[in-house]
Design brief:
Strands 6-5-4-16-17-18-15-19 form an 8-stranded mixed sheet, sandwiched between helices. A 5-stranded parallel sheet has the order 10-2-1-14-20, covered by helices on one side. It folds into 3 domains: 8-70 and 227-311 and 444-500, 3-Layer(bba) Sandwich (FAD/NAD(P)-binding domain); 104-223, no CATH class; 317-437. Helix content is 35%, strand content 17%. It has helices spanning 15-26, 55-60, 103-123, 139-153, 157-167, 171-178, 182-193, 206-213, 231-244, 287-295, 302-310, 345-352, 396-414, 418-421, 430-437, 489-500; strands at residues 8-11, 31-34, 70-72, 77-79, 87-90, 96-99, 216-217, 220-221, 226-227, 248-250, 255-261, 264-270, 275-277, 280-283, 317-324, 338-341, 365-369, 381-387, 422-428, 473-475. It is globular and about 65 Å long. It is of the alpha/beta class and 502 residues long. The chain has 16 helices and 20 strands. Bound molecules: flavin-adenine dinucleotide. Flavin-adenine dinucleotide binds next to helix 1, strand 15 and helix 15. Residues 11-17, 34-37, 42-44, 46-51, 254-255, 284-285, 315, 317, 319, 385, 433, 437-439, 442, 444-446, 477-478, 484-486 line the site of flavin-adenine dinucleotide (FAD).
């Protein structure tokens, strides 16, 4: 039998595979990363803003030394209005409002945002923690969870009660209780549901929003960052850093099987038929794909197989890219801002409704970034993340066409004449994203980030501590706790869990 020449094989060079590989290599492990695509970075190629890059990853991987530069670490947002009466959110906490909203909402939003950030900060230590095992003898894990509970209790009795109340409500009701401005409620409802398969009126929409708000950029919580060169430049910095740490990174190397011998993971088989052995395999691709396709049900117990099949991964997010002749005019909006088209919380809900039945919305909601407004050397390009798009329509081509037409019609209402500036348009629907990036259902988090699939239930009970169901196998993708985004957090946590197990 050939001797393994690596200590760890990492499957997938997305943000989590790269973060895990770096951590393991920096502790002396000989690491091989196998990436199916021809470049590393994974879903960072879809992303356009940073909201939760893990500070541990950014610092330990010296991303600045590897080329990461921020064009903005606190991007303002403009909620667009078709009459030009936009609303701008800026300031260190995003709570300074200018434009189309009442004085009462200025005050109410500042209070609500501070409260949400405070609650998110209480929950944020959970992100960097291995989820507790809810089992006897779970000792240390439960102690850590108890510490978070204590932090929550230390908010004071009334705030503690308020945290409990809002966690059980939905975003629509929360916003409706506190605010009146449709534009403000629209942009907030958009943010709260971004990347999910939930409308603002869906139950349990506040917790995923708090998870999003617990993220940091350059050490500041709840802000948005724009790297120079876009998010692919951030992915390139991650890849340069792992190579500098001595990791071997092989692209065009798709894994089709995890080899199991004597009930242990011992290596992988590539599409070429090549076999590579290592005593530890860390899979940084979706857990359902890892378990059902790469390991296979015959190596899993029936209960786990059933639960893996039931894992919910419905993506509702599409990616629109337009190559433009010139910058468009969004009725005077500052083009350096993140621009959001979501006229009200009802507009967000209405965009979600048809998707439940596999249909495209007439008026999708979206966030837009125009990199050339920041960087005169960048080509004119509009990047939009659009909600909601069906992940399994009856006719994919018709759905793609309908979605593109609906997006262009929406854009035209906000930036008249934009259509004439378009040189090239591409829209990736959730099913295209699944085909191209391997995210099941095109799901942002590689598995929905819904309450029943969070913390010790993520990805599945029994494998929520990054340790796979077979000795030698570890799970590390966004499908694991605490979920997605170009954060590197699940990968880093998984590497720490692997170290702790040795
Ligand atoms: C439309 C859309 C827009 C988004 N926008 C943002 C954003 O603006 N900001 C943000 O922070 N997040 C954004 N996200 C979320 C983010 O892209 C993901 O959560 C993140 O990329 C997940 O990282 P990962 O490392 O777990 O997996 P991935 O990034 O999916 O990486 C997995 C890698 O594994 C490779 N792979 C898959 N199967 C195999 C195999 N069998 N063998 C070898 N390699 C394999 C893939 O090619 C890929 O490179 C967006 C997601 C979507 C869908």
């Amino acid at each position: 039998m050939p001797m393994p020449s690596y200590d760890v094989i990492v499957i997938g060079a997305g943000p989590n595979g790269l973060a895990a590989a770096h951590r393991l290599a920096s502790r002396g492990a000989k690491v091989l990363v196998l990436e199916g695509a021809n470049t590393p970075g994974g879903g960072a190629g879809l992303a356009h803003l940073s909201y939760n890059l893990d500070a541990r990853v950014e610092a330990a991987m010296n991303l600045r030394d590897h080329g990461l530069r921020w064009m903005s670490t606190n991007l303002a947002t403009t909620a667009l209005s078709a009459d030009g009466m936009h609303l701008r959110l800026e300031g260190a906490l995003g709570d300074r409002l200018t434009g189309n909203c009442s004085d009462a909402d200025h005050i109410a939003w500042a209070q609500l945002r501070r409260r949400l950030l405070r609650f998110a900060a209480v929950l944020s230590p959970l992100n960097q923690m291995t989820p507790p095992r809810i089992a006897r003898k779970a000792g240390n894990h439960l102690l850590q969870l108890a510490k978070v509970g204590l932090r929550a209790r230390m908010l004071g009795a009334s705030e503690f009660r308020e945290l409990g109340r809002i966690l059980l409500t939905n975003v629509h009701d929360l916003l409706d209780d506190e605010l009146t401005s449709p534009l403000l409620k629209g942009v907030l409802a958009f943010d709260a549901t971004l990347g999910g398969w939930l409308g603002p009126r869906s139950p349990n929409t506040v917790l995923p929003w708090l998870v999003r708000l617990s993220g940091q950029t350059a050490g500041v919580q709840g802000v948005l960052g724009l790297p120079k060169g876009g998010m692919p430049a951030l992915a390139a910095a991650l890849a340069r850093s792992v190579e500098a740490a001595g990791v071997t990174l092989r692209c065009n190397a798709r894994v089709i099987r995890i080899m199991i011998e004597a009930e242990r993971a011992v290596g992988v088989t590539l599409t070429s038929g090549e076999e590579v052995r290592a005593p530890r395999i860390l899979s940084a691709i979706a857990p359902a794909v890892t378990l059902l396709d790469l390991v296979g049900p015959r190596h899993l117990d029936t209960g786990l197989t059933t639960r893996a099949r039931q894992l919910k991964a419905r993506g509702g997010t599409a990616k629109l890219d337009l190559t433009l002749r010139a910058l468009p005019d969004f009725r005077g909006a500052n083009l350096k801002d993140r621009l959001v088209i979501a006229g009200s919380e009802h507009a967000v809900e209405t965009a979600f409704n048809p998707v439940k039945y596999g249909r495209t919305p007439d008026r999708p909601v979206m966030e837009i970034v125009l990199p050339s407004a920041h960087d005169p050397e960048a080509p004119h390009h509009l990047s939009a993340i659009v909600q909601f798009a069906p992940h399994a329509p009856a006719d994919r081509d018709a759905a793609r066409q309908a979605m593109l037409a609906a997006c262009m019609a929406q854009l035209e209402t906000q930036a008249p004449g934009i259509g004439a500036l378009v040189q090239r348009a591409e829209i990736l629907m959730p099913f295209d994203i699944e085909d191209r990036y391997g995210l099941p259902g095109g799901q942002w988090h590689a598995g929905e980030l819904s309450v029943e699939q969070m913390l010790f239930l993520r990805p599945l009970p029994g494998v929520a501590q990054y340790r796979g169901p077979i000795p030698g196998l570890w799970l590390a993708s966004a499908g694991c706790h605490p979920g997605g985004g170009v954060s590197g957090t699940p990968g880093w946590n998984a590497a720490l869990a692997m170290e702790a197990a040795e």
